[in-house]
Amino acid sequence: MRVIWWLLTVVAVSLVSILLSEQRALDPVQNVSLSITAPLEGALRDLANPIADVFQGIVDRGDLVRENERLREEKELLEKQLANQQDAQVRIRELEDALGVKQNRPEDKLLVANVIAQDPSGLKRAIAIDRGSADGVDEGMVVLSRNGSLIGTVSRAYADFAWVRLITDPDSTVNAQVEGAPAAGQDASAARGVASGDVRQGVVLDLLPPDAPVTEGSLVTTSGLGGNYPRALLIGSVNSVDERPAAPFKKATVEPAAKLSALEMVLVLTSFKPARLAGP
C-alpha cells in the first residue's frame, strides 16, 4: 500500500513540474541558479586556461623537437651523400691525373697509393702510404705526386704500408738543376746544385755557381747525377735567390710543385732502381 502511495506522489510531482515548466514558472529559480554558478564557472575556466595552455605548449614543443630531429637527420643524410659524391669526383680527378702521368711516362711502372697518415712530430716531413713491400715497394724508391712531380722517397717499407720522406724533410737531398738557357760562355751544367729539405723554408737549392743564371720562377728539376733519381723530374720553381758577391756559391729557395701538405694520392716509381738499392 505504501508503495502505491509513493508512486502516485512521484507521478503527481512530475506532472506539476512539467506544468510549471511549460508555464515558465521556474525561470526565476533557474535564473538565480545561473547567477550563482556563472561567476564560479568563469573563474574555473580562467583558472584552467593557463593550465591548458601549458599542456598544449608541452604537446607543441614535443612536436617541434621531433620535427627538428627529423630535419637534422635528413640534413645529415644529404651532407653524407654530398660528401660521398664530392669524394668520388676528387678520386676520379686523381686517377685521371695519374693516368696522364702514366701516358707521359710509358716506360715507367707506377704504383698508385693513398696517403693514410702524416708525421705528427713537426720535426720531420713524412707521410705514410697504404702500399708496402707486399706490393713491391722498397726503401729508396722515388715517389711522385699525382701530376708527376717529385715529392720524396720511400724511407721505410713494411708489409702493408710505407713511410715516405718528403723533399722538405731535413734529411732529404736531391741533385738538382735549374732549367733555362745558360748565360753566355756557360754550359748547362753551370746551373746544377743540391736541393735540400728545410723545415722552415721548404726546399733550399744550394751549391749553385755564383754566376749561374738563376732567377725567380725558374723551374728546378732532378739532374740525374748520383743515380738515385731519374733525370728531369720536376721539383718546383725558384721562389727567391740569395746572391752574395763574396759567397762562393749562390743559394735559392724552391717552392715545391706539389702541395705537400694536402697530398691524398701518390705514385711510387717501381720501375726505377735507385743507385743506393742497386748494390755494387
Q: Which strands sit side by side, in order, in the main sheet?
A: 1-2-5-4-3-12
**Structural class based on helices, strands and sheet pairing:** alpha+beta
Helix proportion: 25-40%
Low-pLDDT stretches are none
Nearest-integer average pLDDT: 77
Question: Count of DSSP helices?
Answer: 3
- Largest β-sheet summary: 6 strands, antiparallel, barrel
Q: How far from one another are the termini?
A: 140 Å
Q: What is the succession of H and E elements? A: HHEEEEEEEEEEEEH
Q: Shape, please?
A: elongated
Count the beta strands. Answer: 12
- Report Rg: 44 Å
Strand-residue fraction? 25-35%
Written account of the structure:
With 280 residues, the chain is α+β, with helices and mostly antiparallel strands. The chain contains three helices and twelve strands, in the order ααββββββββββββα. Helices cover 37% and strands 27% of the residues. The strands form two sheets. A six-stranded antiparallel barrel has the order 1-2-5-4-3-12. The chain has a six-stranded antiparallel barrel with strand order 6-7-8-11-10-9. Strand 4 and strand 5 form a beta hairpin. The model has no long low-confidence stretch (mean pLDDT 77).
